[in-house]
């Protein structure tokens, strides 16, 4: 923890100082993916959200127990539940990037899947506003279905595009590496990327362009948890619904 706090100071303080010298504060938001039902890892995540007063967007696969998730999140002040795919199932033809929707799917079929996902959320008393495509794969047919239902989309790495169809707000800072197995990306790597994202926004005068922190509570190793705790003690995420 102390190591990561020190690393954060060494790698981010000067850039954050340039922001505060201009009277600005960066806009961070926080997305966590792959929830299906409550469990110890989710509890740990929610405790961090609560402790640091950090609003959280939890991307939920609709084939899980959404009502139990709603109950688990009820005592945490600011948690938004977003739709994370239909069944988080890779249906990409051989050789193509992983994704749930592909060229062979009709708009009617995808819209029906989306309608079912929205209905599953509605049964748990939720009206979702955001869709997070598994593997960040937003096929044009999926985008058309999202626009039809008035849902925004969140993928990875791009600028916010509120006027796009569907409106887009991405995550940018993935704490994990995925290949060959899931593990912490490493404090230096994450922080150098954070510094670059901050500098790009400062130099471009895009002070309000959000930076999305991305976590996957079910896959965190202990270094990921430790870094996340240190990072949340230094940055102040805002609710996605606030921008
Ligand atoms: Zn996922």
Protein described:
The protein has a domain at 27-183 and 210-221: Glycoside hydrolase/deacetylase (TIM Barrel). Helices cover 39% and strands 14% of the residues. It has helices at 2-21, 40-51, 66-73, 107-123, 140-149, 187-203, 222-232, and strands at residues 28-35, 56-60, 79-83, 130-131, 152-153, 173-174, 176-177, 183-184, 211-215. Strand 4, helix 5 and strand 5 form a beta-alpha-beta unit. Bound molecules: zinc ion. Zinc ion is lined by residues 33-34, 84, 88, 134.
- Number of E-state strands: 9
Q: Which series of helices and strands comes N to C?
A: HEHEHEHEHEEEEHEH
**Which class of secondary structure composition applies to the elements?**
alpha/beta
Percent strand equals 5-15%
The CATH class assignment of the domain at 27-183 and 210-221 is Alpha Beta
The number of distinct helices, counting runs of at least 4 residues, comes to 7
């Amino acid at each position: 923890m102390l190591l990561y706090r020190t690393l954060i100071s060494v790698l981010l303080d000067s850039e954050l100082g340039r922001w505060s010298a201009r009277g600005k504060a960066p806009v961070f938001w926080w997305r966590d993916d792959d929830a299906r039902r409550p469990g110890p890892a989710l509890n740990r995540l929610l405790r961090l959200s609560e402790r640091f007063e950090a609003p959280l967007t939890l991307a939920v696969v609709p084939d899980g127990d959404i009502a139990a998730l709603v109950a688990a999140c009820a005592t945490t002040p600011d948690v938004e539940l977003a739709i994370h795919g239909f069944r988080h199932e890779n249906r990409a033809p051989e050789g193509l990037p992983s994704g749930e929707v592909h060229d062979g799917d009709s708009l009617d079929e995808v819209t029906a899947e989306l309608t079912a996902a929205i209905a599953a959320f509605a049964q748990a008393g939720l009206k979702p506003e955001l869709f997070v495509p598994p593997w960040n794969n937003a096929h044009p047919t999926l985008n058309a279905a999202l626009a039809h239902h008035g849902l925004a989309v969140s993928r990875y790495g791009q600028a916010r595009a509120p006027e796009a169809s569907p409106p887009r707000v991405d995550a940018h800072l993935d704490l994990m590496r995925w290949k060959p197995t899931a593990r912490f990306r490493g404090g230096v790597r994450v922080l150098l990327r954070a510094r670059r994202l901050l500098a790009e926004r400062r130099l471009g005068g895009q002070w309000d362009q959000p930076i999305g922190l991305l976590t996957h509570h079910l896959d965190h190793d202990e270094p990921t948890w430790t870094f996340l705790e240190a990072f949340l003690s230094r940055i102040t995420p805002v609710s996605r619904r606030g921008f």
